[in-house]
Write a structure and sequence with these properties.
- The chain has about 150 residues and is mostly loops.
- The chain is built from two helices and five strands; from the N terminus they run ααβββββ.
- A five-stranded parallel beta sheet has the order 1-2-3-4-5, with no helix packed on it.
Length: about 150
Amino acid sequence: MKQQWIQEIFDWADEFNLNEQEIPRDIDTLLSMTNIGVGFSNITYLPHALGSLPNLKSLNCRNNELTDVPPTLTQLTELNLLNNKLSVFSENIFHCPQLETLNLCGNHIEQLPNNIVDFKYLKELNIGDTDIRCFPQVIYKMKNYVL
């Protein structure tokens, strides 16, 4: 029997016409995925259930219509939100403490929060082509990152 959260992912994939390569409808294949790429799909939201995928580490959502991400993506090490509709740095991103790479390029974010330093593993923060004009002073205290 299919668990409800898996059906939530399948329904979301069907809603946005995501193909089998993007979101496989075979449960075992879906559960084994470490990387999901759903770029250029006009996606307006991500289902909370994506956070239940046990092996998911990388989520590429470039060139969509996202304004936020769910707080359930705690296992991610890479999140690509290039060219979406983010207008603020979502607090939900802080629920991804293992992030090593975060791409926010091409969004309308105006500032980074001071607690950006809470990302202990962040090595790459891409914020090109955003509306950010100045950085919080704490960003210069971050170690092991490329801005």
